[in-house]
Design brief:
- It is a single chain.
- The chain is mainly beta.
- It has helices at residues 14-32, 189-195, 245-253; strands at 35-41, 48-54, 57-65, 73-75, 86-87, 91-93, 96-98, 102-103, 105-106, 114-118, 127-131, 136-140, 152-153, 155-157, 160-167, 170-176, 186-187, 203-209, 212-220, 224-227, 230-233, 236-241, 256-260, 269-273, 278-281.
- A hairpin with a 2-residue loop joins β18 (203-209) and β19 (212-220).
- The chain is 12% helix and 42% strand.
- Strands 1, 2, 3, 4, 6, 7, 9, 10, 11, 12, 13, 24 and 25 form a 13-stranded mixed beta sheet that branches.
- The longest helix has 19 residues, at 14-32.
């Protein structure tokens, strides 16, 4: 239907063929405006990884998609000769070309082929669908018809995705951090203990947070969080020791009660329309 070289394409029924041509152009633009990006998790859902090609640097590379970082970053010495900020350098995320004005290069990083962090600037003014069951991200200019759902307002502040929620009948705001993938809910110690199964012993594990070692205190929970009209079971609730008081107080000042990662939404589809500040869960 859309082969411009077909016999008689511009002959005979000219108006019909011209309409077909315009339709083909429209479809091609629609397809170009939507991209499906496969992702994979590291063990225990610690990090969400996407395949990246960096022009001028051959090899198999990955970046962590981390909404805890407002900006995309590269890790020093992961690409030969790259030690300082890159300017207007393209990254090919699957088939999507992304060209930040600046890509800072920092010392923190992962081992192996993980070369950096893909931050919230990647989804600025876009729709991103987290299709967790199929392990893929859908990046688009509008919500694909297949993923239409009831939408609720959220805040996008300084590159942070802040989702309204209700925990223990109290309204709060959750900082959605895909870099905290292993945790359903990270909160303060008092809230964590109140949501935990009474008498449960914590499972304490060290956590590397941008070069700083924190301790995650994980407690089993039979409670749930209400978000986008859905009741999502927590299974575990976590509080961190080792975080600076300044970090904790800064979150409280802007009304952020807790943080959540990918684990809360596993088995679901999370739709985040950054352009229109709306989100929903399927």
């Amino acid at each position: 239907m859309c082969k411009a070289g077909a016999p008689g394409y511009f002959a005979g029924k000219k108006n019909m063929n011209w309409n077909v041509f315009l339709l083909c152009l429209l479809l091609s633009f629609s397809a170009a405006a939507q991209e499906t990006i496969p992702f994979q998790f590291t063990p225990n859902h610690t990090a969400m990884l996407v395949r990246v090609k960096v022009p001028g640097f051959p090899g198999k590379h990955y970046m962590q998609f981390d909404l805890g970082s407002p900006h995309t970053l590269l890790y020093r010495n992961k690409l030969p000769g790259v030690t300082d900020t890159l300017h207007n350098h393209s990254l090919l995320i699957h088939k999507t070309r992304f060209t930040p004005q600046h890509i800072p290069v920092i010392d923190a990083g992962h081992s192996g082929p993980i070369i950096g962090t893909l931050g919230a600037d990647f989804i600025s003014n876009k729709v991103v669908v987290f299709d967790y069951p199929r392990r893929r991200l859908i990046i688009s200019d509008s919500i694909p018809k297949k993923y239409q759902t009831t939408l609720y307002p959220f805040h996008f502040m300084a590159g942070r995705v802040l989702l309204p929620a209700k925990i223990a009948n109290q309204s709060t705001i959750l900082f959605f951090d895909t870099g905290s993938s292993a945790y359903s809910l990270i909160t303060d110690s008092a809230t964590a203990i109140s949501l935990a199964i009474p008498g449960a012993a914590p499972d304490n594990t060290p956590v590397n947070s941008w070069g700083r070692t924190l301790t995650a205190h994980n407690l089993p929970s039979a409670d749930s969080v209400i978000i986008a009209g859905r009741s999502l079971p927590l299974h575990k609730v976590t509080w961190m020791s080792g975080a600076s008081d300044a970090q904790v107080q800064q979150m409280k000042r802007v009304g952020i009660g807790s943080m959540t990662g990918n684990r809360l939404f596993l088995g679901r589809v999370l739709v985040v329309d950054v352009r229109n500040r709306r989100f929903g869960i399927r």
